[in-house]
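User: Structure please.
Assistant: Input sequence and predicted structure:
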Amino acid sequence: MTITLVTGGTRGLGRETARRLTALGHTVYLGARDAERGRTAAADLGARWLRLDVTDDDSVAAAAAELGEREGRLDVLVNNAGVFEGMATPEEAGVAEARPVFDVNVLGVIRTTHAFLPLLRASAAPVIVNVSSGLGGFGIVTDAQRRESAWSLPVYAASKAAVNMLTVQYAKGLPGVRVNAVEPGFTATGLHGMSGPGVQSVEEGADAIVRLATIGPDGPTGTFSDRAGDLPW
């Protein structure tokens, strides 16, 4: 049985990822700070709720301890929890706007990965999937043919660029763990509230996450991809 933790698992891409992985036979833990939402989502999906606030060191440490007591290991960590500051332009984006975004999107990945690494080490084939964005790819935002090149979103884009670099460094420094970043694509979720032409479904958005969460022992590491394949960093 594959033991999987999905942070930010009560809605959007996290929930869909949890649904899909549960259907594939994983024992899925939904990491969520809100007890009511966490328990409800877990019950709906046939998953398990784990109290987890990625911005709180003590909460993350307690969640790792609890999972360790329950399962003794973790096979797949999906660092999905993320926030968006609301299209803040360079003129609008100050420290007050950046701090909470980096606390979740970047420090949250570091906190969670660090705390759960001993449990991942106990797995025979540990996997980490970091949910990133094309907005964090230098090769994407500088390509005039890509829609991401038209936007200037320094806070969110910089946070996801940091996630991409963390992915590369973890992949290099943790040779026994397969660590990859994924770009779900422009997906209709509560993160930004956008929908319409050119916005894909949450089911489509979860494709890349699920693919990297289910790789075998000989799967890739240190990659950045979307549902169509590899992406430039």
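The beta strands are 3-7, 27-32, 48-51, 76-79, 127-131, 178-182, 224-226, 229-230.
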